[in-house]
Specification:
12% helix, globular, 3 helices, Rossmann fold, 5-stranded antiparallel β-sheet, mainly beta, 3-stranded mixed β-sheet, 128 residues
Length: 128
């Protein structure tokens, strides 16, 4: 939505839903593009994520490095990172080893936070 309506990238989408999109802002992980049989190729398990100073994510977690679980094979396409940042999107959580976006947030919004991982895999209703 942000890519289409704020950045004016007509047809921007995920290649999971629109393989021929002119703007693949969400795409298959680069190392998996040549794999024909996708079975067993997901990014699975817990990975560390470094949080940006002053971010909503850091305020919510209260620590600079977190670990969250993943179950996916699509990622944010880093070739769009600069244009997203120029228009107010903050990449507040990064998996440094692969330079992968884990958390993004809108800088002028009270709580627009999007995550690549599944926080529900590790959260419990009694953990506050």
């Amino acid at each position: 939505e942000f890519a289409r309506n704020v950045l004016s990238l007509e047809g921007a989408n995920s290649t999971e839903f629109a393989p021929e999109t002119p703007h693949p802002v969400i795409d298959v992980m680069e190392e998996q593009k040549k794999i024909l049989r996708m079975g067993g190729t997901m990014r699975l398990g817990a990975y560390p994520c470094n949080l940006k100073e002053g971010s909503l994510a850091l305020g919510a977690y209260g620590k600079k490095e977190i670990s969250e679980r993943h179950r996916h094979r699509y990622e944010f396409n880093n070739s769009y990172r600069d244009i997203f940042e120029k228009h107010g999107m903050v990449f507040s959580g990064i998996y440094r080893e692969g330079n992968l976006l884990e958390i993004m947030e809108l800088n002028n919004h009270p709580w627009f936070v999007a995550v690549q991982f599944h926080p529900e895999f590790k959260s419990k209703p009694v953990d506050v």
